[in-house]
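User: I'm preparing a small set of examples for a lab meeting where we compare how different chains pack in three dimensions. I only have the primary sequence for this one, and I'd like the structure in token form so I can line it up with the others. Please keep the answer compact; I'll paste it straight into my notes.
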Amino acid sequence: MNWHTIFYDFKRSFLKPSVLAGILLITFLGLGILLLFVNILSSAISSPSARQIVIPAFLEFLLIGLSVFSFFFPFIIIYLTYVTFVKPRNEGSLQFILVKPITRTQLIIIRYISGALIIIISTILFTLLSAFIVEEIGHIKTNLFALMLAIIGIIISQLSFYSLTYLLGSSIRSTSTYLGISVGIYIILLVMGGVLGLFSPTADKIYSYINPLSLSSLIMYPVNPILGFKPNMYIVIISSIMWIAVPIYLSSRIYERTDYP
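Assistant: Understood. Below is the structure token output for the 261-residue chain.
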């Protein structure tokens, strides 16, 4: 694996004005909403002892910003796959890269890893900045275990969805069709759990394990038990690995066997 090529591709993708602007927009939006809530609650409670009782626990406060980030960032992921893989492939610019001594599988893995680094770094920075706001302005001591689970959970969910977009991107020729189907699938993944929960708690439980967007809630269950059941962590680990590894493997196989440029 050529890490120099990966880091070059990472820098090139991250510094694309549209990608960078989208990440900054979501970051400022999420931190701004979090800061607003922190200021309201901090000003409403003057006594330090009262603050310890009334203000929510660290993770619950942190989730205000993380919920905004987790909701909007998949749109950045869809666009990231579009600008780094789907669009260049359709325009034929990937064909120029393939003239060099690199296979299609290596190319898709390099592009995938460089995008994954963008997702990981963006998530870590946003979560740490959120924790800083909660502790310094909200005066709520950082729970390192909760912070670690939040970072891991969100990264796993985002990378799982990222792998899914690569599978869609390698399977769909039209760029507009890719964008439309990706957004549609994201919306379906978001609302399906709530719909199933209305009719069958058992189906909702099973769906939580197979929905990449639910993996963060499953991983954070030890510190944020909002689910109606205690998840089996072995199944969560297997589901996380499968969601990340299988779609990108299938993507490389599909791209290797097509005549797309």
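A couple of notes for your slides: Confidence is low (pLDDT under 50) at residues 50-55. The chain has one domain: 3-257.

User: Perfect, thanks.
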